[in-house]
Amino acid sequence: MSHDHDHHHDNELDPMAARVRALETILTQKGLIDPAAIDAIVETYETKIGPRNGSKVVAKAWSDPAYAEWLKTDATAAIASLGFTGRQGEHMQAVFNTADTHNLVVCTLCSCYPWSVLGLPPVWYKSPPYRAKAVIDPRGVLAEFGVSLPVETKIRVWDSTAELRYLVVPLRPKGTEGWSEEGLAELVTRDAMIGTGLALEPQAS
User: Fold this and answer.
1) What keywords were assigned to this record (predicted)?
2) Annotated binding site
């Protein structure tokens, strides 16, 4: 049976994107959502919020020991003091990488994620393979992201939930003494704040 026509097929989308597209279509047809409003929300989190907020938090923690201590003990308040509050950022905990311990964040149940500091979650963060493997084989997950840690480094996996979301504070790169917070923030990537990456080295930023 011939199938030569030029209309658009959703089957080029991955399963998650196809389900989202189908749900959006139904809700739009029923008049329950405004596509323009959805686009505005997505654009806000992609271009105006995003991981740049989190990078400012990390840079300040690197530069200000008092702020770092506050971030350790009350991350929600410390982050809010920089103006980063809102949806899915109400209950935060910061986990600090050390020379001995590396932290990795996952949401094993769904896709809980701190939007106010990291923006929208990447597709891989929501995927079942990542959610399963991060718990079973975190070192293997890190290898897939190009991160190789010494065998003696402990890897601690944090399971994000609707009640508590995590921000990883990566180790400050060497050779950045005296840098401004703005310069330091350029070294902090989204993946470093999830734990699937490291802060950039100065020459790589």
Assistant:
1) Iron, Lyase, Metal-binding
2) 107, 110-112
Contacts of 56 (CB under 8 A, 6+ apart): 82, 84, 181, 185
Highest mean pLDDT among 13-17, 41-45, 78-82: 78-82
Q: What is the dihedral of CA 36, 37, 41, 47, to 10 degrees?
A: 30
Active site (annotated) includes residue 148: no
What are the binding residues for Fe(3+)?
107, 110-112
Chain segment 106-129, per-residue pLDDT in tens: 998 877 888 889 988 888 998 889
Annotation says 160 is catalytic: no
Q: Is 42 helix (H, G, I), strand (E, B) or coil?
A: helix
**Distance in angstroms (rounded) separating the CA atoms of residues 119 and 100:** 29
Given 2, 63, 81, 111, the catalytic residue:
111
pLDDT tens per residue, range 5-20: 444 444 566 676 677 7
Our answer to whether residue 111 is catalytic in this structure is yes
